[in-house]
Amino acid sequence: MSALNDDPRQRYSSDDFPQQEQEQPGLTGATTPRPDHGEDSYVGSGKLTGKRALITGGDSGIGRAVAIAFAREGADVAIVYLPEEQDDADETAALIRDAGRTAILIPGDVQREDFSRQSVDHTVAELGGIDILVLNAAYQKNRDGLETIETAEFDRVFKTNIYSTMWIAGQAIPYLGPGASIIVTSSIQAFNPSPELIDYAMTKAAQVAFTKALAEELGPKGIRVNAVAPGPIWTPLIPATSWPDKLPTFGQDTPLGRAGQPAELAAAYVLLASAEGSYMSGAVIPVTGGRPL
Prior knowledge:
The chain is of the alpha/beta class. The chain has 7 helices and 7 strands, in the order αβαβαβαβαβαβαβ.
């Protein structure tokens, strides 16, 4: 890597993002510029050899970056995604297989309890067990005021971000043994909530409480539970949030002056999943471009 790219302000562009908008859940191919998931940069070193991972929302964005990193570190990976994200899921599966690992595709909606629980059972049946659970699936939408949020939308946010977290983790715990790791994708919004993301921020704060409480419960069993709190990260979720006026300068108000890329989070998840993070539990790792939690 060049000296220029070693400067965190300049590793990725800080130019304005072009105006664009997508329908939820957002797709990689329609996102301009295309996010960097570490396809050409992440190099593994065997930190997760023989491990078996389940990643929700693993088709694109942060989930894809984590899937690539886990596979290149030696893990087999199952990913959960919405059926309309099949093209993204196929791309991620190809990257996992290119690393010489098994990829399991599990399409469905984590808002459904039966599907959420079955995704764990399916992973165990296909991979022979589960060692790493990454609870990453999320939904957010720009709000014009609390009084405008319809109950159906509120339900969608909470079922996707909170209910599924509880269902999937609860189903997975009986399969997890000493050395297993649960990692939750929370957000800087848990600590510094934006009014236009009030319902999303509520769920992310709840995930922090979930992480800390579950770490207390599972620590005596040798199972670690941690969270990553991303700041502004360029993923398909961003143009699908209905932020046309915010997109051009997205992330430029961070101390590093730019938005992050999914590839810049992968190492945090690898640390929390691997033996290198063996004394870390109940922690929330910020990856925020310098914004404090």
